[in-house]
């Protein structure tokens, strides 16, 4: 064996030992972005990995069975009318929030899919808005609205006469402290048109202003709105309609920890949706006298909710509306009441039953038959 062979053998042995030692060394793991809980905005928010934005994902599944109007003989004699019907609805909520030097930046989406008896699936973008500090832009609840009911308020049940509308809004909220705030909002007036009249093209957004108080005893709100009422008939005149509303919700801890009672009143002239009336046109034109007049309506409403136990609650909502249509229009007054009882055996899961009644009395000159409506429903709902 010569010197060259000895050196090659030694080098090979050293390389083998070095390789074995390197294989025994620990390898640094790849960095992992774990989902972190975000407690800045309440429960169920988490940070989107790699960002400082907090996201809450939620949803709701609602299953309804309706006992349709069985309070009027005209309906009971109609063989084409459905005595019972069903509805399944699903909602997906996404709520993304970020604290910035300008204040809260928020994006909210509520996607809704509905399947009714004998029909197809209806998709709806119920809400989609952005908040930037004190500003709100997008499809959201009208800033005019206040009390919108404690009962189910489902379309298959008896409806109430109060303002409850989603709209496109551009709103600014000023907070003065101690729960007092003021709101100014521009809103899409096409969502507020009533009846089946032929309206002209939309020109100006509705102007809404509100003053609100939220404190330990409850909340209160005073709202006003301006609305353009303009018919397609070129001979008619454009009118500036308006709505005024005031409401209060009072907490009743002496009865139950979550018990409340609410009252509100609304008046509208040429903007009937702000009084909860949607079946009468805001304005009418008389071709004989070539005059244009606005419709008027007022409504009062309220509701009470009581929790018998942590799992069982009952609610009742009532409303009354009086409608004055110009010229030979159909004047009427309507009152309605609905009550329900809900059992929530586990958080987010509800079983409820509701019964509603409404009475509509038309003016005699219209020769429209007075109507009584009685409906019922059963609901199963899971919110997560």
From TrEMBL:
Q: What stretch or stretches form a coiled coil here? A: none
Q: Where in the cell is it found?
A: Cell outer membrane
Q: Which UniProt keywords apply?
A: Cell outer membrane, Ion transport, Membrane, Porin, Signal, Transmembrane, Transmembrane beta strand, Transport
Q: How does it sit in the membrane?
A: Multi-pass membrane protein
Q: Does the keyword rRNA-binding apply?
A: no
Leader sequence range is 1-22
Any stretches that span the bilayer, and where are they? none
**Protein purpose:** Forms passive diffusion pores that allow small molecular weight hydrophilic materials across the outer membrane.
Q: State the family it belongs to.
A: Belongs to the alphaproteobacteria porin family.
What does the comment on domains in this protein's record state? Answer: Consists of 16-stranded beta-barrel sheets, with large surface-exposed loops, that form a transmembrane pore at the center of each barrel. The pore is partially ocluded by a peptide loop that folds into the pore lumen.
Q: What is this protein called?
A: Porin
Record the organism.
Pannonibacter tanglangensis
């Amino acid at each position: 064996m010569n010197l060259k062979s000895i050196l090659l053998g030694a080098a090979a042995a050293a390389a083998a030992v070095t390789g074995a030692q390197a294989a025994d060394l620990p390898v640094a793991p790849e960095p992992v972005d774990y989902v972190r809980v975000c407690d800045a905005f309440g429960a169920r928010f988490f940070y989107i990995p790699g960002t400082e934005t907090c996201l809450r994902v939620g949803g709701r599944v609602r299953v309804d069975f309706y006992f349709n109007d069985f309070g009027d003989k005209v309906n009971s004699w109609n063989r084409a009318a459905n005595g019972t019907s069903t509805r399944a609805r699903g909602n997906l909520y996404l709520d993304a929030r970020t604290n910035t030097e300008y204040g809260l930046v928020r994006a909210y989406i509520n996607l809704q899919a509905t399947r009714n008896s004998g029909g197809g699936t209806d998709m709806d973008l119920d809400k989609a808005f952005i908040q930037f500090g004190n500003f709100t832009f997008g499809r959201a609840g009208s800033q005019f609205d206040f009390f919108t009911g404690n009962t189910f308020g489902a379309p298959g049940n008896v409806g109430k006469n109060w303002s409850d509308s989603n709209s496109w809004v551009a709103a600014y909220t000023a907070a003065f402290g101690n729960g007092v705030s003021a709101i100014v909002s521009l809103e899409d007036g096409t969502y507020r048109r009533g009846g089946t009249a032929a309206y002209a093209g939309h020109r100006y957004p509705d102007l809404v202003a509100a003053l609100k108080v939220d404190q330990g005893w409850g909340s209160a709100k005073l709202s006003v709105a301006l609305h353009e009422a303009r018919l397609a008939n070129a001979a008619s005149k454009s009118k500036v309609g308006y709505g005024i509303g005031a409401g209060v919700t009072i907490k009743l801890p002496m009865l139950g920890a979550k018990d409340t009672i609410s009252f509100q009143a609304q008046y509208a002239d040429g903007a009937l949706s702000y009084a909860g009336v949607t079946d009468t046109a805001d304005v009418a034109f008389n071709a004989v006298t070539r005059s244009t007049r606005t419709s008027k309506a007022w409504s009062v409403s309220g509701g009470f909710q009581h929790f018998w136990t942590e799992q069982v609650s009952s609610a009742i909502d009532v409303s009354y509306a009086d409608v004055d249509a110009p010229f030979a229009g159909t004047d009427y007054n309507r009152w309605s009441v609905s009550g329900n009882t809900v059992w929530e055996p586990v958080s987010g899961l509800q079983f409820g039953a509701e019964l509603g009644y409404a009475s509509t009395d038309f003016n005699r000159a219209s020769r429209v038959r007075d109507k009584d409506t009685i409906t019922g429903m059963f609901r199963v709902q899971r919110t997560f």
